[in-house]
Amino acid sequence: MSRTKTGPVTHRRHKKVLDQAKGYFDRRSRTFKVAKQAVDKANQYATRDRKTRKRDFRALWIQRINAAARAFDPSLTYSRFIAGLSKAGIEVDRKVLADLAVHEPEAFNAIAGRARDALA
Prior knowledge:
By secondary structure, the protein is mainly alpha-helical. The protein has helices at residues 7-20, 32-72, 78-88, 94-103, 105-119.
């Protein structure tokens, strides 16, 4: 049986990695061995930071909600505001609340008023 050479397969695999490393500095974009390490590390960072981004945005939304709730009533903290929402039976997620706080303050203030009244 004749010998099978894997030139085209290896070339395709190397090309795929080098295409992913395009724009990297120096040997990281030109040498397969170094580029493979750089691409692997970049993928590790990307995987980790997809999780981190969710955390960061939730923290941002909470800060915006807290600031808007305190602007409405200085005694209305974030935790009391969320407790008031649940007592009032208002089910709005933090992303939407933060967007309302920034772009539609009147609507947010109406929700905050209902939450404060539910606490009393």
